[in-house]
Automatic annotation (TrEMBL):
GO molecular function: NADP binding
Organism: Hoyosella altamirensis
Record's protein name: 3-hydroxyisobutyrate dehydrogenase-like beta-hydroxyacid dehydrogenase
PANTHER family for this protein: CYTOKINE-LIKE NUCLEAR FACTOR N-PAC, OXIDOREDUCTASE GLYR1-RELATED
6-phosphogluconate dehydrogenase NADP-binding domain ranges (all copies): 16-167
InterPro entries the record matches: 6PGD_dom2 (IPR013328), 6PGDH_NADP-bd (IPR006115), HIBADH-related_NP60_sf (IPR051265), NAD(P)-bd_dom_sf (IPR036291)
Length: 239
């Protein structure tokens, strides 16, 4: 069973480095700052760090400098190819650190990144952010984690600054798999809803969505199961 804990504020003394300051990375850094953590940030282009510097973050000129300054290193870049470049640039500075990678990718990529991180001497946790940047730090926001359980347990109160953390297991690829699975369901729902509104026409779409579509889809979620009862969607093993 996934482990879920409240997003209570975390230990303020633990230092954090955030590598990558896109929309999501900046939101992560801001959430850590609000929770009282000493913060170092790095980004490939320096222009995105000015607001965080004004808020009290130290701006590093290299990933290795940022990693050296922190107990916890959080990586959030475009994809795993970019993440691999940053990890290589950080090099030996990751030794003895906990590296949390919140970049998007596949389970296989997560496992490959874990091997690189461990080789560099880091304890590795992979993650999936199930929220938008404006909601980072809210209790209602969920972030999935998998990988080194000891490292997760030691850092989960700090990670709770980002939202409610859910630990899925020691397989490094689980967070990426669950992330893709949840997004697949969401995009399927949105595609079906868009098709439905096209069928009824633009003039009727607003009332159709409010009065019929949302209540109908909400009622249909009961058919998905979620307990030990039989569901038409539940996977069954072949015998």
């Amino acid at each position: 069973m996934p482990e879920q804990i409240s997003a209570a504020r975390s230990a303020p003394h633990e230092s954090v480095a955030v590598l990558g300051l896109g929309a999501m990375g900046s939101a992560l850094a801001q959430a850590f700052l609000r929770a009282g953590h000493p913060m170092t940030v790095w980004n490939r282009s320096s222009g995105r760090s000015s607001a965080l510097a004004d808020a009290g973050a130290v701006v590093a000129d290299a990933p290795s400098v940022a990693a050296t300054s922190a107990d916890l290193v959080v990586l959030c870049v475009f994809d795993y190819a970019a993440a691999e470049e940053v990890v290589r640039a950080a090099g030996d500075a990751l030794a003895g650190k906990t590296l949390v990678n919140l970049s998007n990718g596949t389970p296989a990529q997560a496992r490959e990144m874990a091997a690189r991180a461990v080789q560099a001497g880091a304890r590795y946790i992979d993650g999936g952010i199930m929220t938008v940047p404006s909601m980072v730090g809210a209790k209602e926001s969920i972030i999935l984690y998998s990988g080194d359980k000891g490292a997760y347990t030691a850092r989960r109160e700090t990670l709770a600054a980002l939202g409610t953390p859910i630990y899925l297991g020691s397989d490094f690829g689980l967070a990426a798999a669950y992330d893709i699975a949840l997004l697949s369901a969401m995009y399927g729902m949105f595609a079906g809803a868009r098709h439905a509104t096209e069928l009824v026409g633009e003039a009727r779409a607003t009332t159709f969505i409010r009065d019929l579509l949302v209540p109908f889809l909400t009622a249909m979620t009961g058919a998905l199961g979620g307990d030990d009862s039989e569901s038409p969607w539940r996977c069954r093993q072949s015998h």
